[in-house]
Amino acid sequence: MQGNPIFMEKAIALATENVTSGRGGPFGAVIVRDGEIVATGANLVTATNDPTAHGEIVAIRNACAALGDFQLTGCHIYTSCEPCPMCLAAIYWARCDAIFYGSCAADAAAAGFDDAFLYEELKRPINQRKIPTVNLMRERAISSFNAWRAQAGRIDY
Ligand SMILES: [Zn+2]
Q: What pLDDT, in 10s, does the model give residues 88-147?
């Protein structure tokens, strides 16, 4: 699959402009459908006090709002840097059809944005992760799934 350099140029420009404008980190993303830009995003973590406001997440939110849909089937995401595990998962949840990335995780790490520890955490058993992660009230919590299964008007996703 081939990416369109025009859209990657845009993602990179968004990343650089985000830095030079003082808004945030050097990350930008563009979401494209049928050769047209649906939405863009840039890192807004510090600007909005939102640790999840990575460029890709912001672009996904903007694209979903623009399309009035919770899925981005048929869309391609161009991101100035290889997605971190959170963004990668979000891209999968959004059902994008392809990911084009500019710089690599190693390039981000060299600039002080190291997400390698997250990939390591994901491989560890739950009880060996850095943040204590404890199962509590499983049987009680399952009642929410029972409610979901019984909900006639649910929107499956
Ligand atoms: Zn991310």
A: 999 999 999 999 999 999 999 999 999 999 999 999 999 999 999 999 999 999 999 999
Distance 86 CA to ligand 1 centre (A): 5
Catalytic-role residue among 36, 56, 120, 121: 56
Are 58 and 80 a contacting pair, CB within 8 Å? no
Contact predicate 72/96, CB 8 Å: yes
> Which H, E and C letters describe 26-92, residue by residue?
CCEEEEEECCEEEEEEECCHHHHCCCCCCHHHHHHHHHHHHHCCCCCCCEEEEEEECCCHHHHHHHH
Instruction: Identify the residue whose tokens are 């392809």.
Output: 98
- The answer to whether the beta carbons of residues 57 and 87 sit under 8 Å apart is yes
Closest CA to 19 of 61, 59, 50, 47: 47
What is the Cα–Cα distance from 138 to 126, expressed in whole angstroms?
15
What are 22's two structure tokens?
A: 């003082």
Dist. CA 157 → ligand 1 center (Å): 22
